[in-house]
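hey all, quick one before standup. I had two proteins in the batch that finished overnight and I want to keep them in one place so we stop losing track of which output belongs to which input. First protein below, input sequence then structure tokens straight from the run.
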Amino acid sequence: MLVNSTEFFKNLPPKQCRECGKEIDEQHECYMNHCEDCIKIGD
């Protein structure tokens, strides 16, 4: 059974930062994997 692409993206779990584990307030399908706080630390 094929899943509608809209349903697929809507059902993805929230993304978490790779560094601190904080939930990222971004679209789940985006490529970002660090929260804004951890990105600032790396600068």
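OK second protein, same deal, sequence then tokens:
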Amino acid sequence: MILGYNLIVKLLLGLLLSQIHAKSPNPRDGNVTFEEFKAATNNASILIIDVRQAVELQDTGVIPSSINIPLNVLEETLTKLSPELFLKTYQREKPNFDSLIIFTCRSGNRSLQAQRIALDLGYVNSKNYPGGWLEWEQYLKDGDKSHSSASPGKLF
């Protein structure tokens, strides 16, 4: 009898987990293009979080309107920092679970991890900018020549 009960519980749990995963967005579907990211830097309603370490920002530079929350403290910051302390620390409102957040880093790897963390915490409009600082830096070197013909996508 216990064996049958355990089997039923495992089957139900498996079914429940498959439904949750089926409804969970694929983080790669949440990538933003360079043009969308560039537009976001001029939109105060979008929170851009750079998850590089502070020393990296000092060495390379900062993307306009972004705040720096290193990947290793991101989850704790989003879960444990009060809205008041978040505002005091970052001079931006703490995001709501439906706020649009775009994560960036050097090359898109850590920002993808950050997006997954945020999605797992319930921040349903978390996006990843896979071009990262490397693509942004190229834009700064090239001016707007290599990206001028594209228009922002439907993200905004």
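Flagging for whoever picks this up: Residues 15-27, 148-154 have pLDDT under 50 and may be disordered. The chain has one domain: 26-147.
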